[in-house]
Predict the structure.
Amino acid sequence: MGAPMARHLAGAAHEVTVWNRTTAKAEAWVGAHGGRAAASPRDAAEGADAVFTCVGNDDDVRAVVLGEHGALAGMRPGAVLVDHTTASAALAHGLETAAGAVGVRFVDAPVSGGQAGAENGTLSVMCGGTADAFAAAEPLVAAYARACRLLGPAGSGQLTKMVNQICIAGIVQGLAEGVAFAQRAGLDVDAVVETISKGAAQSWQMENRARTMARGEFEFGFAVEWMRKDLGICLDEAARNGARLPVTALVDQFYAHVVARGGRRWDTSSLIHLLAND
């Protein structure tokens, strides 16, 4: 997702330097969009007004941001670090502290909208940080987002993303059950979806995943392995704050069964596989 986000920044006339753990990917991006490929996160960050990270998990963020060759080591005081990774709120708190120690502002800014949202510049971005840090980041994020909002102090963006994933988990399971029921009942799934999506059952998941779900096609969205990572973060945070997430915990176990069937890289709508292939 970082590649199209960087493309939108370049398209908005910003000078962009990129770094990727796979050097060939960074070089290919520069070949297509201009700018410069850096040798390390520190090299990429040196002299920049803003640095954006978008990687896999907490450990990946630490590896890219902290340490001798991390982005913070190259950032100048007054610059802003924006982390788009879906990670823990605890990591966001730690990064804000580490950034503040060298005079850098920090925003945790996980995104929703998937690969298509990144490609089309229509992501929703949930932010945590100070008003000053957000003010520095928001005009830049606008290059690839249709919505960008400050929800509170550092960690608030990650907590909001957890709410997002909790809601999605329940919706996708309900949709899978509804589609599987329609199939067993001999209904035309496309016609059913066309009808009920105009009423109270409407959702993004229904409009974008119900038909491919019915066809057993699971190559269109967010991978199961990444959803399990995100739900794990939700469940860990719930254990700390006392929230009860019975449906989320159940759906996480359903996804574990999908993985056991070889669906690690299937998209999240593959929950129906457990219902249609028992």
